[in-house]
Amino acid sequence: ILCQQSREVAALCWLLADNADGLDPDEAELAGLMRDIGIVPLLVMAEHHPGLWSSEARLNTVIGQLRAEFGAALLESWACPAGLVEAVRHADDWHYQSGEQAPQLVDVLITARLHFMISSSQNDGLPALNQVPALRRLGGPEPDASRSQALLAEARARVEQTQQLLSTR
After folding, report:
1. DSSP letter at 127?
2. Which has more confidence, 130 or 103?
3. Rounded Cα–Cα distance for residues 119 and 58 (Å)
4. DSSP 8-state assignment for residue 103
5. Alpha-carbon torsion 50, 54, 56, 60, what sign?
6. How is residue 143 annotated by DSSP?
7. Minimal CA–CA distance to 17: which of 126, 158, 124?
8. Residues near 28 by Cβ (< 8 Å), separated by ≥ 6?
9. Inter-residue contact 13 to 28 (CB < 8 Å)
10. Are 48 and 40 in contact (CB under 8 A)?
11. CB 67 within 8 A of CB 40
12. How far apart are CA 19 and CA 108, in angstroms?
C-alpha cells in the first residue's frame, strides 16, 4: 500500500508542478517518491532491535513522529538539493510556509498529499483548506472531492503508463 500511495502522490506532484510556474515536474515527482524514505531506516532499526518498541501500534506512532526528520537527514547525507530536503521534512505540516515568494517543492508535495487524502476519503485531521498556505502559493482552484478524484484518476493513469513503459523494456 505504501508503494502505491507513494507512486500516486508522486504522480500528483508531477501534475501539480506541470501546471505551476517555475517548478520542475520531474523534481516534484521525485519529492513525492522520497516523502516516506525516512520509514526505511526506522523499519531497519525496528527489525534489528525488536524490543525497542513495545507493539506495532507504538512502532507506527514512532514512524509517524520521526519519518520526516529521518527522511530529511538521509537526503541531506546524500547531498540532495535543499528544496527536496525541505519538501520531505515539512510534507506533513499543513501549515508550513516557505520563506520564498514563488511556489516551492514543499507546496507541491503538501498539496498533492491533500488531494490524495481528500480523494481517498481520509479527511480526518485535515485542516480547513483556507488554512493551508501551500494551496494559496500554488494558486488554482481549491481541492474538493471531485477535483481531487479527477486529479488522482489522471495521476493513476500516469502511473499505469509508466508501468507499461517499464514492462515493455
Report:
1. P
2. 103
3. 28
4. -
5. negative
6. P
7. 158
8. 13, 14, 16, 17, 105, 108, 109
9. yes
10. no
11. no
12. 10
Angle at 149 between CA 168 and CA 118, to 5 degrees: 120
> C-alpha grid cell for residue 78?
546524500
Neighbour count for residue 146 (Cβ, 10 Å) = 10
125: left (phi over 0), alpha (psi -120 to 50) or beta: left
The C-alpha atoms of residue 8 and residue 129 are separated, in whole angstroms, by 21
- The tens digit of pLDDT for each residue in 115-152 reads 888 888 777 888 888 889 998 888 766 666 677 677 77
Summarised one tens digit per residue, pLDDT across range 5-60 is 888 899 999 999 998 889 999 999 999 999 999 999 999 988 888 777 778 888 88
Q: Is the pTM of this model over 0.90?
A: no
Joined grid coordinates for residue 14: 508531477
User: Residue holding cell 480547513?
Assistant: 128
Q: Which three cell numbers stand for residue 157?
A: 493513469
Q: Where are the alpha helices (DSSP H) in 37-103?
A: 39-48, 56-77, 82-90
Which residues have CB under 8 Å from 33's CB, separation 6+?
6, 7, 10
Cα–Cα distance measured from residue 99 to residue 102, given in angstroms and rounded to the nearest whole number: 9
CA distance 142 to 134: 11
Amino acid at 159: V
Three cell numbers, residue 59:
512502532
Amino acid sitting at position 134:
A
